[in-house]
Amino acid sequence: MSKDKFPVTNAIRFLREHQVDFIERPYGYEEKGGTEVAARALGVDEHLTVKTLVMEDEKKSPLIILMHGDREVSTRELARVLGAKSITPCSSEMALKHTGYRVGGISPFGTKKQLPVYIEETILSLPRIFINAGRRGLLCEMSPADLVRVLKPIAVHVAR
Questions:
Q1: Which domains does the chain have, with CATH numbers?
Q2: Could you tell me if 71 and 120 are in contact, meaning their C-beta atoms sit under 8 angstroms apart?
Q3: pLDDT tens across 25-71, in order?
Q4: In 3-158, which ranges are E strands?
Q5: Cα angle at 120 between 117 and 126, to 5 degrees?
Q6: DSSP 68
């Protein structure tokens, strides 16, 4: 378990409460740098970084989709899989309202509202992942199995 070296976020509290084994991995955040900057700063393959994206369907119902850092979400395919007419990214303001996190620091852990979580299925076969820990410039390294245990995401194949 990690130590109290960095400011504690709701995501870190959630991970500790659920006894998840993780390592806090801080890096120098760059505006609009995304997973490419984080991966380079941490010396890991960008494919191992996981983006937390907040999206909504045509009825404005929000959801989280977890995607490899070096891939994009096919919103058309995600809509088809979910039986929705359309899926679009939420605005920064709506993402903050739903999760309690600012864009660039959104974590699927400890969100303000409980949202359905979907995960690109190929993430599940990775040995370790690097996912946002609730603030810009802080990822946590963990096992995908622990993520599945605490979030119970639905696996989908929507990467492009």
A1: 25-156 (3.90.960.10)
A2: yes
A3: 999 999 888 999 999 999 999 999 999 999 999 999 999 999 999 99
A4: 22-26, 49-57, 62-68, 87-89, 117-120, 129-135, 138-142, 154-156
A5: 115
A6: E
